Amino acid sequence: MDDRPNHTEHHQYSHPLVAELAWIIGSEPLMQSKVPGNPSHCLSGDWYAEQLRLHSDWLLDLDKNPEALLSFMPDKMLLGKRFERLVIFWFDQSPYFELVISNHSIVENGRTLGEIDLVVREIASNEVFHIEVACKFYLSSLNSSKWDSWIGPNGNDNLGLKMDKLKKQLNMFNTSQGTDIMLDLSIPKPDPSLMIKGYFFHHFSHLFQHKSPTLCNTNYCSGWFSKLSEAHIFPGESGLWIELQKDSWLSTIHNSAGREVFTGAVLLEFINTHFKNEKRAILLARVEVREHVLLEVDRGFIVADNWPLSN
Fold this sequence. Notes:
The protein is α/β, with parallel strands linked by helices.
């Protein structure tokens, strides 16, 4: 598969929610730290690496005693909200930050104009940040660098639309309503910052000659994808595979408790049966046995043959 650094190692954490939180803190962002034309400071890979280093003891303690995290997280959440909730927990509980506000709606004359995801204060520097967060999984529909060709697995979203929306959200403190919030909270104008994590997926035939999105971070987390009619090409008889449900899309898999493991022919039967019943894309992880534990090697989507038509 791709030789790009793909994951931050989080195998030391035994609790899956803590491993997800460590991935959120330490994984590479999707976009460059400076994006021309976008009034944001996209938080950089170096910044996240430093945060993971600073929070390593905190995460290990949380792994031993995850009760606070468990009680903070609802049982069922959409993936984007799950990501956002974990980010809020991080800044709320971190010894290095103060969470000023989260999920703050801006309302004018009874109409919601937008929402501010987070305002946080870094304790050491006393700097205040307005952070908009997103976790996205986009597939390259045309092997192009154009943002609108990077489309969600179910065909109903693309990178261009998301970046436009984030740009609008990051402008909130340039409005009169944002000024009122600063006065109410007695804070200076926050530094607008974008936290966008996730994966970019290349068609398996383009893994070694692919085009990446314009202004992306070169070390983004990456995977592959295949259409249903092509799925017979790649499994191989010796590979071990598991399906990743959405609550396992964050972080990498480092155990297989309770998971069904597929091999070549059985995997193809599973894929074909799935698409006979529904058109929803499925995410697979290829795993290997290392020290009696199944560890994720790479991941990829199988999509319907008519993708990217929305299903």
